[in-house]
Amino acid sequence: MTATTTAPVSATSAVALTGVTKVYGRGTNAVLALDRVSLDVRPGEFVCLVGASGCGKSTLLNLVAGLDRPSGGDIAVADGAHPGLMFQEPALFPWLTVEANVEVPLKLRGTPRARRRERVAELLRTVHLADFGRKRPHELSGGMRQRVALARTLALDTPVLLMDEPFGALDAMTRDILHDELERIWTERNLTVLFVTHNVREAARLADRIILLSSRPGRIIWSTDVAVPRPRRIDSPEVAAIAAEVTDRLRAEVGRHAA
Amino acid sequence: MTATTTAPVSATSAVALTGVTKVYGRGTNAVLALDRVSLDVRPGEFVCLVGASGCGKSTLLNLVAGLDRPSGGDIAVADGAHPGLMFQEPALFPWLTVEANVEVPLKLRGTPRARRRERVAELLRTVHLADFGRKRPHELSGGMRQRVALARTLALDTPVLLMDEPFGALDAMTRDILHDELERIWTERNLTVLFVTHNVREAARLADRIILLSSRPGRIIWSTDVAVPRPRRIDSPEVAAIAAEVTDRLRAEVGRHAA
Amino acid sequence: ACGDDSEAGTSGPVTLRLGYFPNITHAPAVVGVEKGIFAEKLGSGVRLETKTFNAGPAAVEAIFSGALDATYIGPNPTVNAFSKSRGEAVRVVSGAASGGVALVVKPEITSVEQLRGKKIATPQLGNTQDVALRYWLKEKGLRTTKEGGGDVTIVPQENAQTVETFGSGAIDGAWVPEPFVSRLVNAGGRALVDERDLWPDRKFVITNLIVSTRFLKAHPDVVQKLVEGQVAANEYVNTRPDESQQAISTHIGRITGKPLDLKLIKQAWPTLEFTNDPIASSLKTGLEHAVAVGLTQPVSLDGLYDLRYLNEVLAAQGKTTVVQP
Amino acid sequence: MPRDTLTRTDAELSGLDALDIAGREKETSRAARIWAATWPKLAALALAVAIWQLVVFSGWKPPWSLPGPLVVGEELLRQAGSAQLWDGIAVTLRRAAVGYVFSVAVGLLVGLAVARSTVLRAAIGSMITALQTMPSIAWFPLAILLFELSEKAIFFVVVLGAAPSIANGVITGVDYVPPLLLRAGRNLGARGLTLYRYVIAPAALPAIVAGLKQGWAFSWRSLMAGELLVVGISQTSLGAQLTYARELADSPWLLSTMIVILVIGLVVDAVFGAADTAIRRRWGVLDQAGR
Amino acid sequence: MPRDTLTRTDAELSGLDALDIAGREKETSRAARIWAATWPKLAALALAVAIWQLVVFSGWKPPWSLPGPLVVGEELLRQAGSAQLWDGIAVTLRRAAVGYVFSVAVGLLVGLAVARSTVLRAAIGSMITALQTMPSIAWFPLAILLFELSEKAIFFVVVLGAAPSIANGVITGVDYVPPLLLRAGRNLGARGLTLYRYVIAPAALPAIVAGLKQGWAFSWRSLMAGELLVVGISQTSLGAQLTYARELADSPWLLSTMIVILVIGLVVDAVFGAADTAIRRRWGVLDQAGR
Ligand SMILES: Nc1ncnc2c1ncn2[C@@H]1O[C@H](COP(=O)(O)OP(=O)(O)OP(=O)(O)O)[C@@H](O)[C@H]1O
Ligand SMILES: Nc1ncnc2c1ncn2[C@@H]1O[C@H](COP(=O)(O)OP(=O)(O)OP(=O)(O)O)[C@@H](O)[C@H]1O
Ligand SMILES: [Mg+2]
Ligand SMILES: [Mg+2]
User: Fold this and answer.
1) Angstrom distance (rounded) from CA D277 to CA D286
2) Phi and psi for B3 in degrees, rounded to 5?
3) What's the CA gap between C131 and A52, in Å, rounded?
4) Average pLDDT, integer, range B158-163
5) Which of A48, C247, D3, D215 could form a cystine bridge with A203, CB 3.0-4.6 A?
6) Which residues have a Cβ under 8 Å from the Cβ of A149 and sit 6 or more positions away?
7) Rounded to an integer, what distance in angstroms lies between the CA atom of residue D169 and that of residue A18?
8) Which residue on chain B is closest to A258 by alpha carbon?
9) Ligand 2 atom at minimal distance to the Cα of residue A143
């Protein structure tokens, strides 16, 4: 966290990474997960990160969230913006009910009880789990857990949202619905979103900008602005075209490594 | 497990479910997860299950694997076929290295040490993790863990394979490669596969038959045979057409519930 | 005396397991073992195994369970062992020591009256010293209760702890046996009462020798030799005090890891009398006192003493015999 | 090749029937559950008493050294009829409760402090186990120096016995909190104390309860020894009774006191067991061991 | 609106440099790590001795009742020079080792059996904690009855003290094995014993190690008490030395014996600590507590 300064590098970025390097482990066992990654995210921008499995996407989000320290380089997050991270795993607290899990960030912020209740109910409705508030995480299906985690992250109410494959365990329909919800919230609250996904169509559906990371070491090798006007539909030809381009780039990248 | 008899109901099925019902919990808290599901899977058939989040897909696989008892109905698995289940979560043993995790089923079957080594190396190559054998699960990325779990399940060498969103955390390219690998293994070993996925294209790419489950209670509401000849490509128009049909059905089903 | 008389009629060597405490009140036992007096008297036909204890209960448990054949022990556990086994388990075959008990108090206390409202320690609720203190206070018109109430608060506690509590000022005095009397005196205490002064002839039992009835029945000859050893040990202790004191110090050092301070032994020595008489009358009187202060029910001590062997030995040596009660 | 995957036999249950079944299963099993929890205890008790009686009948040891169940039972009844036993239990339980509560407070605080601070852990972390191994009697002189012959001396010994064990439970628990949950907590805004309150403490709860259980055993044993420090200050405690029974070579009394201690132990274990079951139910790890 | 996301400043490190840094970090930190682990211990020790000396200087208690560090240090040196202390340590450690190994065997077996079998758990599960609370002295008569005055009597007391604690650790561990891992193990073909060997035992290891640590403390304390059962001439055990030091009111001796016991406790804790660190490293839960 020491490397995360709260003053943004440029007044126009919500998140700014400058030459961020991350090495896991020591000596001969060391893994270079990120290599000199520099990235500026404008306030209110929706950025999608794509890349092969193990290329360092989660690592990058963890660094931005301040949960890990970079081995080199600098990370700056806009004033007062404690970024909310939705982990790749649900990471729910097994000893709490679904409701209580979602309530945790509200409690930690000191939201009054009545308001908390309301907000939890609202969030559970958003993720279509209104009936499951009293259950415990182990009584839920994989996708349901992921949605609880989404609700919990949204409860954080931060201006910067980091999401690590938030819809990976959801069926296409539920995912579509949640895309709409997320887009709505993003617009309403003018959020800045850094979004990791394996689904290039999802990226094209949601992003202002798509960034492609190379595999080990993770480097930004390509990025594109998605100029398709909103509202978008995931099965629209424009989205499909962008998705096809990203797929080609990704294929080239993964192919280069497999070779 | 008592309800799982090893003699198949009909000589032509590898897995046969007859009126399988599953209730979780008791009294007013009870959740009806599966309601009278009947299903025959031919030996060597590749069946994909699709359905909304929380509709009972994982529950069904758990029942077939004998890890849970149905509340009603009967499940029969072909002679001597202990079905191998790849869980929705990686479920790796945190105290073992990647290699050792993959080795567990081989050890349990009493495979000699030299053969074990060979086989583990081969499986890790299959999932493109040859360099990561000495790491521990917590040092891997989400997608890497999922691939280790895949390797471990393949090490079981069972004729019946149950897979719960095995490629959910993988990027499109790695996924494509593993589709090919899985198809190859399936053909070579004449496996019977029951495969849960949220990706309808994936289902159309792999399946002989696609089965659609309704949400709470889970019931089989539709099924289709995929007549596209193999080898298939995930971006071929035939696959896309099937996927589109499944998507429509799924949309109708989820829409019916959301209404 | 006769060194090696191989026993006729005994099949194989007999093992005698003898217990004692590494303690100054067990001086005859300690000296007897240290100087080889028992081994000599028992002869080659008997194998002597010695066991040391640091408190009565374990010794009684060992006798009860058959792990021990004979032991030097205080009057209190003797009565317990006898009465709890309904007079079956043990017999007293000889005395060993008398005296060596005193009430030590803070120096500013000089009279009985000043004990009012004070805390006095005894080794254990209902044991000989405890009874003696209560009875004495009662005679002096001071009330005590079992629970520690009354005019004088009686605090039963281990002797080791008494040294600590007296040193830290938590108690005002203690009715204890040697070497704790000397130790408390050295810690600044004053002996207010020497218990010998309360008894006829200044004699009361502090240590006697008991054997298990089973062993006595099976090997009366061995018991006879053991008593011979006891008499010889007492003889030695009484005639060669300096050597005895040195022997005690060394022996205790070997068992506990630290030789007992020779000065302390010398200091305590005059308060003790080493006699073969078990002073049965003092045991009986003590019991009556215990009943009188309400600490116990009357028990019959009939059959506790079997002093035949002792009297035979004494008679053979031309010494005065003791009274078999 | 189209296949009929939608066949249903008539014998199948409807969804609602299935819910009914679940309900009925529960009712039939309540009596069965109680019985299943009780008969093994009764059987174990019967077996223990039978073996004991057999050994006594065999005449292996004299009856004053090993009294039979009947004699001990009579003694126990006699004791139960007298005020002394109940007073003793009351005194000892009160002391145990006070001492334990104090130990829990100290143990939790020290445990949390050591688990949290690297410096403290390096400084006194290993001292905790070392203190745990120190026998109670070694503390007696210090207890007397500090507290003379007050009940505080007893508490001192009890706390020194139990607190390290509880602290160790806390440390183990904190050390094994899943890192993912810690990160989640920190990301949700928990810091320092709130991180402990919302994440670390509940995640470590199973290990803490285990430590509390071990701590109870330590505190009880230390209490039994410590009660000899201050005997007879007004009442006769259970620890003193145990010692007196032994000093008077009164085997039936000793055994009946042991039975009383065992019964108290069983009751306390039931409390911990209930806590543990509640936690396991919450965490969804119940009912797996038997399988 | 195209944005330049690929800028790099010259000051950045190359990937290889980064690896170098990682390597260098390690080297610089080794000495630092040892120092970081040592100075708090030294500081704590210095602080403790200083306070002790201050209290002694204050004249709060007479020196024979509370000797100063110098006196005790001299005594300790004297003891260290004599064979007796080393003999005592040797005797006691041998007994501790034998008794502990035996307790571990019994505790593991009983713990596994109880954790595994519902009937056994119902029958004797709650007895385990009850047995744990039984003070050692209560077992002395039984120990003498069964084993007379042999070393076996000591072991009996030690095992009854330590085994329940170890069994409790095993039971806690087994009870909290994550159900998902159990299912995974069963699906991979592990059944009964192999399930224990491949899944339950390693998953329960942290709790088992915690139980073993508590068990050590119990066995050591029971041993200190039990050593008075059989006092041998020529070698004086540590337990006996502790008691005699107290009975002789020899404060320096008592304190130096306590120091010896503490040092042994520290060494044993270091062993457990190493085991624990190894497990935590494997599980990836190391180094999180400080944060
Ligand atoms: N705690 C760790 N210790 C050691 N290596 C790690 C650790 N976490 C991640 N890594 C390594 O860093 C690299 C990047 O991991 P990361 O989790 O960021 O990948 P990812 O892009 O999120 O992949 P995925 O899409 O599979 O989730 C991987 O090679 C992984 O092995
Ligand atoms: N252990 C359990 N206890 C109680 N209810 C459960 C349990 N496991 C599953 N359920 C419930 O059963 C239903 C089906 O769950 P299941 O995990 O089979 O869904 P799924 O189809 O795999 O969903 P997903 O695609 O999200 O993984 C859900 O409503 C869930 O809440
Ligand atoms: Mg990731
Ligand atoms: Mg699922």
Assistant:
1) 7
2) -80, -5
3) 90
4) 92
5) A48
6) A86, A87, A90, A91, A92, A166
7) 44
8) B128
9) 26
pLDDT digits (tens, 9 = 90+) for A95-111: 999 999 999 999 998 99
Distance CA E208, CA E218 (A): 15
Amino acid at E175: D
Instruction: Kindly state if the Cβ of A33 falls inside 6 Å of ligand 1.
Output: yes
Residue B240, number of CB atoms within 10 A of its CB: 15
Chain A residue at shortest CA distance from D182: A91
Check if the beta carbon of residue A83 is closer than 8 Å to that of residue A64. Answer: yes
DSSP string, B135-180: S-GGGS-HHHHHHHHHHHHHHT--SEEEEESTTTTS-HHHHHHHHH
CB contact under 8 A, C65 and E144: yes
Asked if A128's CB is within 8 angstroms of B173's CB, the reply is: no
Give domain limits for chain E: 1-32, 69-289
Q: Whose CA is nearest to atom 22 of ligand 2?
A: B58
Which residue, chain included where needed, has tokens 């596209």?
Answer: B228
The helix or strand, by DSSP H or E, that contains position A224, with its residue range, turns out to be: strand A220-225
Our mutation pick for probing the ligand 1 site, out of A28, A31, A34, counting the most ligand atoms within 8 A of Cβ, is A31
- For the cut 90, the answer to whether the pLDDT of residue A149 exceeds it is yes
Pick the ligand that lies closest to the CA of residue A141.
2
CB atoms within 10 A of CB A232: 18
Give the ipTM: 0.84
Contact C182, C264 (CB under 8 A): yes
Q: Which chains, if any, share at least 3 CB pairs under 8 A with chain D?
A: A, B, C, E
Residues with Cβ within 8 Å of E188's Cβ and at least 6 positions away in sequence, in order, are B104, B105, B108, B152, B156, E198
Answer yes or no: is pLDDT of E262 > 70: yes
Q: What angle do CA D277, D279, D282 make, to 5 degrees?
A: 110
Fold designation for D69-289:
MetI-like fold (1.10.3720)
Its pTM stands at 0.85
Indicate yes or no: CB of D8 within 8 angstroms of CB of B72: no
A40 forms beta bridges with: A16
Cβ of residue D220 closer than 8 Å to a chain E Cβ: yes
Instruction: State how far the Cα of E141 lies from the Cα of D67, in Å rounded to an integer.
Output: 12
Contact E145 C61 (CB under 8 A): yes
Q: Which residue's CA is the nearest one to ligand 2's atom 30?
A: A140
